[in-house]
Protein: Translation initiation factor IF-1, chloroplastic
Organism: Chlorodesmis fastigiata
Amino acid sequence: MNKKQNGLKLPGVVQKCLSNGMFLVELENRFSVLAHISGRVRINCIRILLGDHVLVEMSLYDLSRGRILSRLKTKNRNRNINTNRNRNINRNRNRNINRNRNRNINRNRNKNRKKKL
């Protein structure tokens, strides 16, 4: 599709992942469209997975095919931020546990050395 041509841009949800960057996308109006990844999405290595919300551009001549222009932000992305924060909290907690364990091991070693002397 040339830049001069105006296509329909509609949001949709990825229903099925096919081979070679092809996806079956269900649009808001309940129509299913066979869509491929645009060059910009491919170059920037944007991953599109099952259930992602995407923006699809469709030609006025063939309404059964389209091009995925971008992946849209969803509320689920915020949950990933929270899980990353929880991972950092768990990581810090594990570091503290390991530090305490190492301190106890060193204390026991020192006690055993003093007993031997």
Notes: The longest strand covers residues 8-17. The chain has two domains: 8-71, 74-107. The chain has a mean pLDDT of 79. Helices lie at 39-43, 75-116.
